[in-house]
Each structure stands twice: as structure tokens, then as C-alpha cells.
Amino acid sequence: QSMDAPGPRATLEELKNIMRFWLSMGCDGFRVDMAGSLVKHDTDSRGTIRLWQEIRTFLDAEFPAAAMVSEWGEPDKSLQGGFHMDFLLHFGSSHYNDLFRCAEPFFSQRGKGDVSAFVQKYLENYEKSERKGLICIPSGNHDMDRLARSIQGNNLKIAFAFLLSMPGAPFIYYGDEIGMRYIENIPSVEGGYGRTGSRSPMQWDHTTNAGFSAAPKEKLYVKQDESADRPTVEAQMADPDSLYHEIRKLIDIRQAHSALQSRGEIEFVYAEEKQYPLAYLRSDDKEKILVIINPADREVSFDGDCAVKEALYTFGGEATFAGGKVTVPGGSAGFYLL
User: Fold this and answer.
1) Which H or E run contains 32?
2) H or E element at residue 97
3) Contact yes or no for 78/72 (Cβ under 8 A)
4) Bridge partners of 325?
5) Cis omega (within 30 of 0) on the bond before 277?
6) How far apart are CA 173 and CA 179, in angstroms?
7) What does the pLDDT read at residue 330?
8) Contact of 200 with 212, CB cutoff 8 Å
9) Within 13 Å, how many C-alpha atoms sit on residue 56's CB side?
10) Residues 6 or more apart in contact with residue 39 via CB below 8 angstroms
11) Cα angle vertex 313, ends 310, 315, to 5°?
């Protein structure tokens, strides 16, 4: 059946009606699940792109301020379809998992990971999406393991220094800002299967069910982390060295420097195969900022001549710039104004 047949046309019109309803109620926009899957047997996603372009025309006419985010994982297609931003997904060809979720993630302190394939694919998508910079790298989502299942301790802070200094809108999955853990071996709920462990209720404070609900704990739809040391917002707000406070600091720095935001350009300075660190230059017409990320627990270096004016942010020690070489302490992240 053609997508222009009466049935599919009626479905599309009803889709617009549903969007009209929620946007009229004050909804800011939509995050569209499986946005790339609407037209079957669709060569190069041409039909799906056309469908979303039609939605975009409708939105531009009636709700121009509505934000549209796609779960597509192919920014070159979704942005063409009229979405403002697209998520990199944990499946497909983005190599996103090389960073956080594989046998040896790049952000592990063991320092045996490889960032190069991710960078290569990122640059490919960046060019295809006309360097719009709205490729979003989420800390996680309801379909993948919690970040804290594979990255722990200070390395979570280093991971967020990366997530909050890349182009694109940052997305932090609830609870990742306090390092909420993946809950192992719990019964599947609502078709979650292995994903259910990433869907446990938010942990606010020291009260019943970590402040999520006053109900008996067996009534919770997903079991919570029952460890005595489970992270909570309350405890992390009280601890100036917590992950929560580091993320607040990183958000403030991003907000204060337009070069670090979604539309700032990115150029990778050092992203070699199976090597550390990762270094990239963020820039716009106002400033240039060199970001150096070294999750490995050892000192590393790379060749580079940089005239650094100021360290805007450092964690785990400051890089040194001397004799055409940049030396980076183990377990560190830094943003340097050039």
C-alpha cells in the first residue's frame, strides 16, 4: 500500500490532530520514538523523510515554537526530515557504545578503550547534517544499561565533562546526575526485560522508598536499589564533592560559554585508535576552547602547540603545555581558553 493511499493519509491527519491537542494544551514538543520506522520497505528512508517534512510544514504553520526530537540515530536523515535534533542510539553504527557500554569502554579508568571509530562516525554525521551541531549524545535512556553500570566514581564526572562540552543539546537521563545504579536481576515489567534495571524510581532522599512514594515498597512498579549506600539527591546536594555538584558546575560553564553550546563548531585535535586522551576544539566567533578528556588512570601526552590563556575548568589535575607537547594527568578533564 502506498503512503499516499487513503488509509495512510488518514493516519497522518490523525497524527497531526493528536499533536494539535497536546501542543494546544501547552506541551513544548515531542520526542518521537522509533521516528525512522514509519514507512515500511522504505529505500534510504525517503518516504519517512517526506512524511516528517509534511509534519514540519504543519508545525511551522500552526506551532512554530514546538521542539521536535527524534529517536532515529541517523542525524543526516532526521534533520532533513525537519527534526531539530536527533539522539545517537546504542544500536546502529554510531559507535556510541564504544564510549560507555562495551567490554572496555573508553571512559573506564582501565584506559583500554577506543574512541576513534566513534569520532570518525560523529564527523561523518556532523558533515551530513551540515554541521548544525544538533546531534545529541544522551547519558542514557530507558532502553540501555545505566551509565553507572560500566563507569564508576570519578570517571562518571569525566564522562559528564565530555557530555556537557559536546555540540548538540545535552540529555541527562533521570538519576544519572546522581549516579543511580542499574538494578540487577529484577523481574521484567511492561516488556522491559533486561532494560527494567534502568527504569527504577528516582531516589530523592532518606525517607520511605527514597522519597518516591509512600506506598509499601512491594507496591512499586519497579523495585528500587535497596543498598544502604544508594545515591540520593538529598545526600549529593549536601556533599560539595558529589557528582551532582560537578554536573551543576559543568552546566554553568557551558551556559557561560557559547563556544561550548550546541551551535559551537567542533574540531577533533587528538582521537587516535586505542590511544588516550581525547582532545577537541570548540569554537565560535567569540572564543576558542580546547577540551581534553583523559579517563585512563595514567598520564598521557600528545603533540600540540597551544597558547593557553586560562583554564576554565579542571578536574583531576591540570594539563601542561610545553615544548610542543601537551601532558595530561590520569583521570582528568579540562577546558582551556586559547
Assistant:
1) strand 29-32
2) helix 97-100
3) yes
4) 303, 322
5) yes
6) 10
7) 98
8) no
9) 17
10) 3, 45, 47, 48, 51
11) 130
**Tell me, what amino acid is at 8?**
P
Mean pLDDT by 10 residues, the chain (338 residues): 89 97 97 93 94 97 96 88 86 86 96 97 87 85 95 97 95 97 95 96 97 96 95 98 98 98 95 98 97 98 92 97 96 98
pTM comes to 0.93
d(CA 283, CA 260): 7
Give CA–CA dist 227/299, Å, rounded.
34
Q: Amino acid identity of 263? A: R
**DSSP-assigned states of every residue in 26-69:** T--EEEETTGGGSSTT-GGGHHHHHHHHHHHHHHHHH-TT-EEE
Name the grid cell of 303.
Answer: 603533540
Letter for the amino acid at 112?
K
Which residue type occupies 105? P
Q: What's the pLDDT at 103?
A: 95
Distances in whole angstroms, Cα of residue 14 to Cα of each of 11, 56, 74, 97, 106: 5, 15, 26, 36, 44
* CA 287 from centre of chain: 24
E-state strands within 200-316: 265-270, 278-283, 288-294, 300-303, 310-315
The pLDDT, as a whole number, for residue 87 is 84
Q: Enter the C-alpha cell of residue 43.
A: 529505500
Angstrom distance (rounded) from CA 168 to CA 275: 25
Pick from 40, 50, 138, 46: nearest CA to 89: 138
Answer whether 137's CB lies under 8 Å from 163's CB.
yes
Distances (CA, A) of 41 to 32, 37, 75, 81, 213: 20, 10, 20, 18, 45
